[in-house]
Design goal:
heterodimer, A: alpha/beta, Aconitase, domain 4, seven-stranded mixed sheet, 8 helices, 16% strand, globular, B: alpha/beta, five-stranded parallel sheet, 16 helices, 19 strands, binds iron/sulfur cluster
Chain lengths: 201, 467
């Protein structure tokens, strides 16, 4: 997993509540053999018409939001099925942070496994970020995971909470595999010992 | 030192790290890979810029999707999504440099048949694969079990698995099998007795005289279905039968290494006073040729029995039996030998090896399959197929009216075009009789190869001892 580093990016407003994983990635895209490449299908039914043409009203289709890396969303984002394809699609689109008052549990966990940071904030602060994000590409927002701070385009600073262990994993780019690789020395030591004991393996 | 089970010994020999909360990193000696559960795992490696930790311990082979009909090298034979999965395995295997048996290779076959055949599976090893029937390899006294796609990626990247230890269960089959009774009948009887949840949380070791008497192939049939009994893995302690089977295989140790290996392998047994969390004992004499009548592998009965009634059961099983009798189109009280069959499938990682084909050929030799019967033999690997042709078994099957196919999983799970149609009823040597497993609304009766062959000839479930 890529390390999560402080960045400044464009935030897009998605005030709709209960954006579910079916909306994020419809079921016809689950037959894939890949985790990558799902970005073009993110929000498929809102983003395209039946013929596959872009819907110009959809926020991420607007020129000023094409480079979005932060979603500011309505309550209960990511509800529905457990499909990991949802965070895969968002990550592939380029989303690094999703901000809402609440998230569905499984989606919330899946985000961390895929290097994304979901941030829960009280309603007023989400509202503030929502209006800031409406300024489009002129409103660059900075997310500093180390300091646990979001800085709006007006220079206002908002503090957020994150589980210390998950923070550690994100900052060091660690997933389960990453964590196991932290024990690489133990694995190597085991391999050396095993090579002596059972050289035929 | 405190006494240990075989499972304890293999576990201890592979424990690479133990955390304070008891979570362990188990080192993996062999990782088998097929096309269905691996694409996202390889993709994960690629995205993270990781390599396969031990490509020399990783073996890939396509089996689930592949057609079993002639001319299958032509990719147009496969539906789009199957073709893409097989092509992805091809690319991944070559790019990451793992051992690989493509469809065009005579050694290609079902992953759990190829591993032992090529000598990849050896006693005392840890073996994993993104497939639940990895339990098969336990027949060699190796700790073998299925894993999910994220774990496939974890093993590819680290050669370890995050695990917690299971409990120890012993299943002893005492005495001697009666004529006409095979390994498949033993394992169906065990599952009939313990239920599909009986092994949950355990690693089962199968032992006793009747197990010792089995060939390696019979032992693989037993361990293959450990998963149907709910166990994490099944094990059989290695002995001379095991060593004889392994010796000389392409990837088995040679020379001084063979001697060293043998010395260790001979220590791989459960100590006399080892602790068992659960013990089940069955007398071999009590086992008859066995068939399943329902839609769970635990719905197993001797061929001499009658279809049970929901009232014979208790609790949630009453409703389950009602539902499965309805699905299977069977009436309580009817004799199992009166059930008419229209399809016979001989193959799968449970019963797709040469001895299985010999047993079936023995029954059909000089006979014809029943009119209107669709019967197919799908060898478990290209090498099994070649050997069966050399021994004249293929001719026996063809003359009797069987289709003689190329190697793959085929109608075991019907992911390729080999499927049952709605209402078709199959005597199958595979391992799962779930609703829809062999095709939408298809009906499956699990049997041994000899019993499948007998059904092909008579058109009914048949007691092979009376043929
Ligand atoms: S033969 Fe059947 S059980 Fe065995 S690996 Fe293939 S699909 Fe799974």
């Amino acid at each position: 997993m890529k390390k999560f580093e402080t960045f400044t990016g464009i935030a897009a407003p998605m005030p709709l509540v209960n954006i579910d994983t079916d909306m994020i990635i419809p079921k016809q895209f689950l037959k894939t053999i890949k985790r990558s490449g799902l970005g073009v299908h993110a929000f498929d039914e809102m983003r395209y018409d039946r013929q596959g043409n872009e819907n110009p009203d959809f926020v991420l289709n607007q020129p000023k939001y094409r480079e979005t890396s932060i979603l500011v969303a309505g309550d209960n984002f990511g509800c529905g099925s457990s499909r990991e394809h949802a965070p895969w699609a968002l990550a592939d689109f380029g989303i690094k942070v999703v901000i809402s008052t609440s998230f569905a549990d499984i989606f919330f966990n899946n985000c961390f496994k895929n290097g994304m940071l979901p941030i829960v904030l009280p309603q007023e602060q989400v509202d503030l970020l929502m209006s800031d994000s409406e300024k489009g590409e002129n409103a660059r927002v900075t997310v500093d995971l180390d300091a646990q701070e979001i800085t709006t385009s007006d220079g206002e600073v908002i503090k957020f909470d994150v589980d210390p262990f998950r923070k550690h994993c994100l900052q060091n780019g660690l997933d389960d595999i990453g964590l196991t690789l932290e024990k690489a020395d133990a694995i190597k030591a085991f391999e050396d010992k095993a090579a002596q004991a059972r050289p035929w393996v | 030192m405190s006494p240990k089970t075989l499972y304890d010994k293999i576990w201890d020999a592979h424990l690479a790290h133990e955390a304070e909360d008891g979570t362990c990193l188990l080192y993996i000696d062999r990782h088998l890979v097929h096309e269905v559960t691996s694409p996202q795992a390889f993709e994960g490696l690629r995205m993270a810029g990781r390599k396969v930790h031990s490509p020399e311990k990783t073996i890939a082979v396509p089996d689930h999707n592949v057609p079993t009909t002639a001319g299958r090298d032509n990719p147009d034979q496969m539906p789009e999504d199957s073709r893409i999965q097989v092509a992805a395995l091809d690319t991944n295997a070559r790019e990451f440099g793992v051992h690989y048996y493509p469809v065009s290779d005579v050694r290609q076959g079902i992953v759990h048949i190829v591993g032992p055949e090529q000598g990849w599976t050896l006693p005392g090893m840890t073996v994993v694969c993104g497939d639940s029937h990895t339990a098969t390899h336990g027949a060699f006294g190796s700790l073998a079990h299925g894993i999910g796609t994220s774990e496939v990626e974890h093993v590819l990247a680290t050669q370890t698995l995050i695990q917690k230890k299971s409990k120890n269960m012993k299943v002893e089959i005492t005495g001697k099998l009666r004529p006409g009774v095979t390994a498949k009948d033993i394992v169906l009887t065990i599952i009939g007795e313990t239920g599909t949840g009986g092994g949950t949380g355990y690693v089962i070791e199968y032992c006793g005289d009747a197990i010792r008497e089995l060939s390696m192939e019979g032992r693989m049939t037993i361990c293959n279905m450990a998963i149907e009994g709910g166990a994490r893995a099944g094990l059989i302690a290695p002995d001379e039968t095991t060593f004889d089977y392994v010796k000389g295989r392409p990837h088995a140790p040679k020379g001084a290494q063979w001697e060293a290996a043998l010395t260790w392998w001979k220590t791989l047994y459960s100590d006399d006073d080892a602790h068992w969390d659960k013990v089940v004992t069955i007398r071999a004499e009590d086992i008859a040729p066995t068939v399943t009548w329902g839609t769970s592998p635990e719905d197993a009965l001797p061929i001499t029995a009658t279809v049970p009634s929901p009232e014979d059961f208790e609790g949630g099983k009453v409703e389950a039996v009602r539902r499965s009798l309805d699905y299977m189109g069977l009436t309580p009280g009817m004799k199992l030998t009166d059930i008419e069959i229209d399809t016979v499938f001989i193959g799968s990682c449970t019963n797709g090896r040469i001895e299985d084909l010999r047993a079936a050929a023995d029954i059909v030799k000089g006979k014809k399959i029943k009119d209107g019967m669709r019967a197919m033999v799908v060898p478990g690997s290209g090498l099994v197929r070649a050997q069966a042709e050399e021994e004249g078994l293929a001719d026996i099957f063809k003359e009797a009216g069987f289709e003689w196919r190329l190697a793959g999983c085929s109608m075991c799970l019907a992911m390729n075009p080999d499927q049952l149609s709605e209402g078709e009823r199959c005597a199958s040597t595979s391992n799962r009789n779930f609703e829809g497993r062999q095709g939408y609304k298809g009906r499956t009766h699990l049997v041994s190869p000899a019993m499948a062959a007998a059904a092909a000839v008579t058109g009914k479930l048949t007691d092979v001892r009376e043929l």
